[in-house]
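Model the whole thing, not chain by chain.
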Amino acid sequence: AQTVTQSQPEMSVQEAETVTLSCTYDTSESDYYLFWYKQPPSRQMILVIRQEAYKQQNATENRFSVYFQKAAKSFSLKISDSQLGDAAMYFCAYRTSYDKVIFGPGTSLSVIP
Amino acid sequence: DTAVSQTPKYLVTQMGNDKSIKCEQNLGHDTMYWYKQDSKKFLKIMFSYNNKELIINETVPNRFSPKSPDKAHLNLHINSLELGDSAVYFCASSQAGGGSPLHFGNGTRLTVT
């Protein structure tokens, strides 16, 4: 069975600095999709970024980028120029070939002004 | 227009009662999901429907019964509520297959007293 691990329950970053959130997963599938979601205190779940496993190029969305290492089954999220509005829970997620989406336990990110 | 809407937003009830949460999506997606988020923010998949057909049924007590009258609606009925059922329940939808991300409703906070 697939599993998703986020080893950092809490992280903090100074405003305008860069932070990297870690995610590892376990799977025997060769084709799958990975996501990062953000959940601010409003509890809304917001898609941050998406990565296709068959693409070697790391996905980028404005200040958010991923470092995807398929062989190591690692999928890190880098947030550049951190802003106060980035403070939230961040969840790494894995989508299986049969449409099941599994979430990691989350990392709570604080942004220090 | 809200893409995935679930009602009610808050639900407070006593142990032993039966309650329902409704979910509707206007995105034209084929697949809908129910997730439970516990007090530690862990998101666990409960059920998934594709075009009104149940495709994922995780280890959930049979007091929980999903119902999908059509592919735009997925409701969750809970019988004989217990204290441990207190959580936030999220409805989500996506296109089937490929790497479509989940689109979430705003969640229903259920409190059982």
